[in-house]
Amino acid sequence: MSTTKYCTKCKEWKSLEDFYTNKSYCKPCWRLYTRESKLRRLDAHRAQAREYAKTFRQAQPDVQKARQKDWYDRNGLEYFRDWQNQNRQGVQEATRRWRANHPLASQVSGNNTRARHEGAPGVITEQEWIAILEQHECRCASCGEQRKLEIDHVTPIKLGGANVAENVQPLCHACNTRKKQQLTDYRKPKE
Q: Are 138 and 102 in contact (CB under 8 A)?
């Protein structure tokens, strides 16, 4: 009786101890084959599950929204904070990249956040800020210099001013710092 057997997978002659009973593959090839087979079945199952979930979401959007809201009410904020803590460096890097690529949106977003924390009513959009800059030809409303401009509230938020386009003027950092909390309006009259 032969003490070797030919593996049809790796095409090598190996000892009988390297084979499972009634298998034409050696043990290492058989393990690899079953692992690959399992992964193929898992991939097919995942694709089938994704397709089912997609059709369910389309067929019953109200049920899906209710489930999402329920999950978020139970886990959302805690899950978000945990994720943010685990990915802090990546989040900070992504934020830095976004701010560098979207300077006006970043400026408007920061202004709206500060105003909201101060309790000021209203929100300024990026389009409104761009329109104000164009009206002033991207120059400081006070000194007329073409520098990096800041969002200044004519009636300061601390004195009850609203965070709306009608209460905003573009000022350079030097003029904005000099103005402080005064009610000074440097804007050009609308034409």
A: no
CATH topology of domain 103-179: DNA Binding (I), subunit A (1.10.30)
172 phi/psi in degrees, rounded to 5: -75, 165
- Mean pLDDT across 113-141: 93
SS3 163: coil
- Mean pLDDT within 152-173: 93
Which residues, other chains included, contact 167 with Cβ-Cβ below 8 Å and sequence gap of 6+?
122, 153, 154, 155, 161
One DSSP character per residue, 77-125 reads: HHHHHHHHHHTHHHHHHHHHHHHHH-HHHHHHHHHHHHHHHHT------
Give the dihedral sign, CA 78/83/86/87. negative
pLDDT at 1: 61
Give the whole-angstrom CA distance, residue 3 versus residue 191. 100
31-61: per-residue pLDDT in tens?
898 898 899 999 999 999 999 999 998 999 9
Contact in structure between 113 and 155 (CB atoms under 8 Å): no
Measured CA to CA, the distance from residue 134 to residue 139 in angstroms comes to: 9
Output the CA torsion 59→62→68→74 (10° steps).
Answer: -140
Hey, where are the domains in the chain?
103-179
Beta-bridged to residue 151, according to DSSP, are 170
